[in-house]
Structure formats: C-alpha cells, structure tokens
Amino acid sequence: MELTILKSKIHTVKVTEANVEYNGSITVDADLLDAAQIKKYEQVYVNNAINGSRIMTYVLPGKRGSGEVCMNGGAALHAKVGDTVHILSFCTVNEEEADRYQPVLVFTKEGNQIASVERYTY
Questions:
Q1: Which of 13, 80, 95, 111 is 20 to 30 A from residue 3's alpha carbon, by CA?
Q2: Is the CB of residue 12 less than 8 Å from the CB of residue 107?
C-alpha cells in the first residue's frame, strides 16, 4: 500500500502580493522553497489562516531573500496582501517508509525570512 504524507511545510508566512492577472500559481522566495525541499512547479496546498481558504496550486521560485509570497491568477482570489498562509507539500511513500519519515518544517520570522528548519519528531 502507498500513502500520501506530509513532505514539508512552510509555516506561517505573510502574503506579500496578490496578482489576479498572472496565469496562476504561487511565487515563493527561493530560499524558503530550498529550505522546505519544494521544487519549481511542485504541487502545493496553500491554507489561509485568516479566511479558512484551502487551495491546491503549483510553485514558482521568487527572488532569493526577498520574502516574496505572491498569490497568482485564481489563487489571488483566496488571499490578500497581509494574510497568513501555510504552504504544504506531500509525497507518496510505502507503509514502511511512512513509519520513519520526518517532514521538514520551515518556521519564519518578520519579512518571511527563515527562523529555523526542523524535522517533525513525533
């Protein structure tokens, strides 16, 4: 059996731009993506902690060190500048791998800068 489990999470970032005119996706500071081990074009879920919206889209890398979190296209209808969101990626593993897998958590500070990178240890 294969299971879909949490691969990584960028926890509590602020939306810096919402651009309905863009073709779609979410643009995220490349430093945050690297820390979370999220690849360009990877599918992610974006959970808005302010309005409860949950969407699925794909990631584009933004400028390194910029703190950029831009909701693009239709995704921009689900979050406005200043909203707090969580960005989650998932992977498929077998049952044995699932028992020992530890997702990556990226915590941020002011300006969407990396505060720490940790592994779930439950």
A1: 13
A2: yes
